């Protein structure tokens, strides 16, 4: 057995088998000797490397809703640093989160572990068939940089629109998860979260998707840990940021750069990288039909750099580079990932 995998599996047993999050991993290598270029772990005290994506149950070529999920991991190998944090949505449960963590540490420098909202989510009868019947949210983290703090995990169910009102949704995939970690370089407290909001658009006329209700709830949950130095969360909101020539109210409330009567004091690294340019933001679409519905947010006391959306072509090119072949007719997900360096 690969010793890197063995260490991570042992940590996972502590995390989810006994509820103990005090386990320590062995020191990780700076980079794998098999990597053909200089990707390395991030040893910079000033920032974390963060990615967010709806990974759609790690789609493969044989599925009804097919994909080539490894492309995104190969793209990560083309970057200067491997991820410190990978926030993901639509995982089948703890077993699939563990599969992703193992694949990352087999192909990237660093050791990885995970936290899931629901280890065994309930079935949802997905239109994409059995491969996507079970969905939950997860946080993949590099154990050489972040160590979980016992007792800080929390989960919550978000709201959906129904009959003109906002009511609690019932799906496992809309249960958010949050946990606090210690940055082992800076010894600061970092809070991470992953959330997936419902697709229902039957709420009140002013907020059909109940996104305003969900940003309020998510803000409360993410800020529910005292003395946090950095708070970062990712979401598939299933609701765009912009329509009819204006930003939607929920997004104005979330993004501290945009004036709003309610300000939850978050920042969006892609918005910052685009310097508020709407054409740039349009180019950074994440949903398959266009538009931005997948977001990274971080508390506005921090800053960001290198905010971007990873294109499908970038994933295809990386797969070809490292494996010699690629299914360029398939994408790593139906959602494009976003990434950034979050400075604090």
Structure description:
With 344 residues, this protein is α+β, with helices and mostly antiparallel strands. It has one domain (3-343): Deoxyribonuclease I, Chain A (4-Layer Sandwich), CATH 3.60.10. Helix content is 23%, strand content 26%. It has eight helices and 17 strands. The chain has helices at 3-17, 70-77, 94-107, 211-222, 249-254, 269-273, 278-283, 312-323; strands spanning 47-54, 85-91, 112-116, 136-142, 146-148, 154-157, 159-162, 165-168, 175-183, 189-196, 230-236, 242-243, 246-247, 266-267, 294-299, 303-309, 338-343. The strands form four sheets. Strands 5, 6, 9, 10, 11, 14 and 15 form a seven-stranded mixed β-sheet that branches. A six-stranded mixed β-sheet has the order 3-4-2-1-17-16. α2 packs across α8 (312-323). The longest helix is centred in the N-terminal third of the chain and has 15 residues, at 3-17. The radius of gyration is 19 Å and the shape is globular. The protein starts with a helix and ends with a strand. Mean pLDDT is 91; it is low at 1-26 and 29-36.
Q: Which helices and strands occur, and which strands form pairs?
A:
Blueprint: H1 3-17, E1 47-54, H2 70-77, E2 85-91, H3 94-107, E3 112-116, E4 136-142, E5 146-148, E6 154-157, E7 159-162, E8 165-168, E9 175-183, E10 189-196, H4 211-222, E11 230-236, E12 242-243, E13 246-247, H5 249-254, E14 266-267, H6 269-273, H7 278-283, E15 294-299, E16 303-309, H8 312-323, E17 338-343
Parallel strand pairs: 1-2, 10-11
Antiparallel strand pairs: 1-17, 2-4, 3-4, 5-9, 6-9, 7-8, 9-10, 11-15, 12-13, 14-15, 16-17
